[in-house]
Amino acid sequence: MTERKPPGVPFESWVDKQIHDAQARGDFDRLPGTGKPLPADLESPYDELWWVKRKMAREGLSVLPPGLALRKEAEDALTAACAAPSERIVRKIITDVNAKIRDMLLKPPPGPPLGRKPYDVEEVVRQWRQRREGRRAAGGTDVSDVPDVPGR
What we know:
Layout: H1 11-25, H2 50-59, H3 66-82, H4 87-106, H5 121-138
C-alpha cells in the first residue's frame, strides 16, 4: 500500500476502505497462522527477550542455576528409583545422583544453595522393597507415591 490518505477523508474511514479493498482482493486469505489462536501473552508487558523465551519453550529448554537443576534432578532420580524394576537399578540411580550431590556440596555454590544432602542408599532400597512387597500383596502396581527418604 503506497497511496496516501486523501485530504478531508477521516483516517478511520480511509483505513476501513483499505481493509475492505484488501479483503475483496483476497490479500488476507491463507496468511500464516490463519485459524490458530492468538498467543496467550498478548496482555503481558513487553519483554525484550520474548523471542528467546518463546524459542526455549518451543525447544523444551530451561535455564536453571546449577543448584536448582540438581535439586530437580535429585527429585526425579528418587522418583525413578521408586519405579525401578530391580534393586540393582535402584542402587545405580541413587549412587549416581549422590555423586553429583556430593560434588556440588564440595564446590562453592554458583547459584542458590542446593538444600540437599546425599540420599541414604540403604534406606531408599529398604523403602523400595517395602513398596514392592506391598504392591505384590495388594496385587497392584502403583508407584506414584514417593517415600519420605531421610536426607531430603
